[in-house]
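the two lines:
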Amino acid sequence: MQPVSINEQITLDAVNKLKPLREQLLSNLVLFSQMEAPTGDEGQRVEFMLERFVLAGMPQAASDEIGNAVGVLPGSEGKRDIMICTNLDSEVSAKTNQDASVLSDKVTGAGVAENTVSAAVMVLLPDILKLLGIELKSNLTLVGSVKSFDRGNHEGVNFFLDNARRRPNFGLVLEGVPLGKLNHFSIGTLRGDMSCDVNTNRQKLYDEESALVVLTSVVNRMMRIPLPRRPYSVVRLGKLHAGTSYDIEPEHAELGFEVVSYDDEIIRGVQEEIRSITAEMAARYDVDINVDYFFSRQAGGLEFNHPLVQAALETMRVLDIEPIQAHIASELSNFIARNIPALTIGMTSGRRRLQPSDHVDIEPIFTGIAQLIGILLAIDEGVCDES
Amino acid sequence: MNPEEWLSSRTYHHSNFNNIEELVRKKKEKNLKISLCLPTLNEEKTIGKVIVILKSELMDRYPLLDEIAVIDSGSEDETMKVASSFGVDVYLASDHLQAHGDHRGKGENLWKALYLLTGDIIVYVDSDITNIHPRFVYGLVGPLIEDPDIHYVKGFYDRPLAFSQGVRPTGGGRVTEILTRPLFSLFYPALTPILQPLSGEYAGRREILEKIAFPVGYGVETSMLIDIHNEMGMEAFAQTDLDKRVHRNQETTALGRMSFGILRTLIKRLQRDKKIELVDELNTIMRQFSVVDSAYKTIEHEIFEYERPPMLEIPEYVEKFKSGKATS
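prediction for all of em together
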């Protein structure tokens, strides 16, 4: 493994040099987090991000065809293209109060620990670079992506990557929490919505069960699908909806689930098992069971010894950040699928439960930004180029 | 200027002033200094947000405000600690002008702001607004920067930019509609076009604010309107629609005590302006009731509504602002 060197001094100095931007950063965070932005309806945040890009003096700032907010800061040489992105949609329920409070050491509120911190950092990035006296040689493209969650299926970032005039050489995906998050590998993921509907004109006189009971039987069978401990593989049941009252047996039930594994073959095997289980149950109980697989990601990513991963780890070491490696499905997989070296990093510590009690810590944000600067400079200097 | 003329010519929308760069240019051209006062009492949940948004947008990004000060009535929570951590001036009201005694209340903070802050224009914004936005400030100072004949601008809320039907009530708060508006209609009809006379967001020029008395409690908004009107007439006023304002709702009993204070302030002015004559002193005790174990219990609140004299009568103020010494 080749040792990588990063610009330690600039990275370390950034933590304190950026403090004058604290109020602007927190103001952006509060304003972003208080805007409702369900998947597919992120317009307010997009407009705000573009307005900030323009105020920051970005020469190119506009939304693309699908609605992503895009800003471009040309580099002095333009040899490399670096894309930084964060998603703008929110998973906070419309019924949840999204008011944020700024306390002396943290910001609280339902939307603050989503990627609103990274959006707040991203719109300040031109000012951050200016304050640190950094002029990048590489072109920098900032993308606030739309339609990420659930059935959005990362449509925004996919669209951009498919249609960008210049293909990025590197990608950095920013997430809110936790600081230390370092994803460089995307685990294979298959997500599906299963629905079970009782035939109202049942012909069978036995095994007549409600949709809820049938779906429970399907769940029990899914739990018995054999999975290896290595490579890591799991069937995760996330959502179950059925029924309206105590005394009426439901005729419709829904299950949301995902299958994740480092081996795409195992995922295909589980998918086949589920097809067989649902066919059997549908026949036994005379019900209709449909599965809609709406999200699929192949496993893959950067090796641990890739210079980009090593540069990120070295930056974290310099800043005394404990790396947390987790291979969840995120925008990262869209870069990986296109063979673009990319990482996901977190911006600060905090708690994310999509509830009003969520918070992010203020001081660590500056370490999070310094981490981003360290990695950006490493890419810009060519440290992360594959030989 | 009759009420209808005033209403149409002096009612603005905050969007009329959202070119902040242009406002800053005009402010500099006119050599104006603008101060923002945030009066607080136990506002730890909202004060941080109010400061970071207003400071970052209107001081750091655009230098519309020259100073921001929190003036606190003696919060028992973390209000002062939170405010201090975001680089604005924080004052405990009771620490200043001590020779003149100490009276706790929002009006006391607003009055002391005239002494502590140095702006030619003072903007007052309540600290409990959860949907705080820079419009709450630029919407108020805009008319004062642009029109030298305007001396005091009052905020009002919740009129959408587009409305599909012909008639839409403006809807002040409960105390406005039940108490203040009927009383203004009876005794000060010229002031009735002011849509939300009790709103906590307003801005004024120092030359007029230093000439008027400040009730220390609930009556300060009402007295300002009456006293500025007596000094300068309706021509001095403007009002700006600041759109929606979200803040914590007060219980009806709290509104009752507020109404008591407003009534004391207003009746005092009715006497002064020879509109009514009282044969006896006004009571200072507001009685409310609660039920404890099926028994009714009287709760007495003493609401005196002490009034601070015009700042121009305070020697320390005259020394600071009128003796030719530096004011910053």
